[in-house]
Amino acid sequence: MRILKPSKITATVLMTVCFVGCSSTDEGGNPVGTGDLPDATQEEQEASIAKSAEARTEMETVLTTGVHDADEIDLDQLDFGEADRLYQEAIATDPNNTEAQFGAAVAHLLALFSDADVRAVQDSIDAFTEDEAPAANRVAVLALIPAKMAQQALENPLTVSELQATVNEEIIPAIDYALERLSIVETDPEFVFTLTPEMIGEDEDAVEIDLGDVYMLDAQLRLLKATLLVTTAYDFDFDYEGNYEWLEEYGSNENVLRHLIRMDKTGTFMTLKSATSMQNAKAQILTAISKMEMGLESIRAETDDQDDDLITRADIEDLDAEFDLSEEGDDTPLFFREIRSTDDVLSKAREALDGTVEIEADFDADEDTPKSTIVFDLGKFFDEPIADLRALLPYHTWHPELLGNRNFSDELVVTDASGVALGSSPAVLFPDPSFGGILSNISTNQQLIDLFGIDAEGVNDKDLLYEIGIVEYRDGGLIVTNTGGGGVEVVFSASVGEDFVEDHTVLVAAGAQGVDVVRSEFALPVSGDEWLTYKVLRDGSEIFADDLYMFGNIYLTISDDEVTIESADHGVYYDDPANPYGSRTVEIGG
Fold first, then answer.
1. What is the pTM of this model?
2. Which residue range is the domain that position 407 belongs to?
3. Where are the alpha helices (DSSP H) in 189-210?
4. Does the residue 221 lie in any domain?
5. Which end of the chain is more exposed for a tag (fewer CB within 10 A), N or C?
């Protein structure tokens, strides 16, 4: 596709980056009050044009001083409030001033983006989406892994519910305000708004925004609104008693597991708050599709010089060529091979949302098996939203009491509906194999397993906490048993919680069994993926010393003549996580 000029890239950023963040709306959340507008007098028209010019100058000043001439952009210092106010004055004087209507939409959203709470919403979205998507076999338990949420919560004092409130109370109303302004602009077939060099950088050429671009901007705002509606339709807050203090101990395996179980089995985490928001999200997507179609039609019909246009006819032609899948092979489903242009993409998207579509493909990625067909009903995700997303997870049980034992595969177990651990067939069972009716022709677990070629044999023999990303490293303690005739001192150095403990001494009496010299002193384990250095003294003299990479508990048995060390072996663990421990014995004084 043809590369846009730098000025066009800058203009596009200006027009889109602000839209992550007040008029009335109807019950569906759509702008109202866009019917016939009163005609202004000649004097009012002139006054509105003058006020609009003031607003433009103000916006140029803010962008020049705060962005283009600034050594470093400080969003807290970018104040578009005055430009927003001036544009609103202009449209109050003459509602038919479409340049002012468009300017008001842009300035209002730019002003919103200067708000710290609104930027926190964007930071959160970035934190949740910056990593690559997990493998397909992890999707079923993704709801149990709030690692990115945890990271953001530690960096930002706002709770998820507070971020959602910001979306509902500030961002979505601002988007609705902008959509109302744009709906008025869209009634003007001669509309043109010029982004001046002062707005996009003095070294750049002016860029023309016309009606087709407005339709495209309208569509992007609606897609953003749909995304925000979905993210606020469910309870994603993972607080404990109204705060995130539990995250301060996030590195502890025990703490992570305890709170994941809480979120999984109790409370309202991942439950639906507003079915109306989901239904409105679908309506916004469908309207966005229509707006994009109108934008394509408008741009294709343009007869003006295209050099200064934000989106040109040539851009659309290049996009059509990119989307033409007619020459794709049989590996591409027929549904997609029917696409010849950008319009076809939009038509297919509408078809997928408005009804069911059949997709025949090699879903199990096995070329030796025939292709299968899924009948997708994507609209059901919005029309009949799932009441509790946790219900999509396979049946499972937690055993936190087994976390510190020598078996690394028994703390999380997949089960049948009654809680009985599964063997090799079936290896996994889902309460709803159709996933809320989205896979409308799937009614049994066996159909789902066959369709995707799910090979989950022996899944309960694996370390599921590691496989699905809940626990990457195993914390542990130093468990000491003293069978000798006298007491010993164990002196250790290690990272415990957020602190490094150096040369800490614990007395272990003769006959003591299974004393965790770390947890008994600090109520926390040694952090996984860290080294533990320790030595054993008897009568003040060192009889044994060692250092080990922490991977689960380390067991030390001390007799009068020898020391036996039992620790998990990484090589053995990968083959048999249920029995990862090996042992070695060292003679004292040998």
1. 0.81
2. 394-467
3. 197-200
4. no
5. C
Angle in degrees, 0-180, between the axes of helices 116-129 and 147-155, rounded to the nearest 10: 150
Structure tokens at 158: 């706002």
Concatenate the DSSP letters of all residues of 142-162 into one string.
GGG--HHHHHHHHH----HHH
Q: Are residues 518 and 571 in the same domain?
A: yes
* Model pLDDT for residues 504-547, shown as the tens digit of each residue: 999 999 999 999 999 999 999 998 889 999 999 999 999 999 99
Pairing, β 478-482 against β 554-558: parallel
* Residue 395 to residue 390: CA distance in whole angstroms: 10
Phi and psi, residue 565, nearest 5° = -115, 125
3-state secondary structure 385-409: CCCEHHHHCCCEEECHHHCCCCCCC
Interval 210-234: pLDDT, tens: 999 999 999 999 999 999 999 999 9
Q: Which two tokens stand for residue 515?
A: 């004393």
Cis peptide before 426 (omega within 30 of 0): yes
* Separation CA 205–CA 196 (nearest Å): 7
Domain presence at residue 408: yes
**Which of 467, 491, 523 is where one domain is finished?**
467
Instruction: Determine phi and psi for 181, rounding to 5 degrees.
Output: -60, -45
Q: Which residue has the tokens 């005055």?
A: 82
Do 514 and 579 sit in the same domain of this protein? Answer: yes
Region class of 183: left (phi > 0), else alpha (psi between -120 and 50), else beta = alpha
Q: Which helix (H) or strand (E) holds 271?
A: none
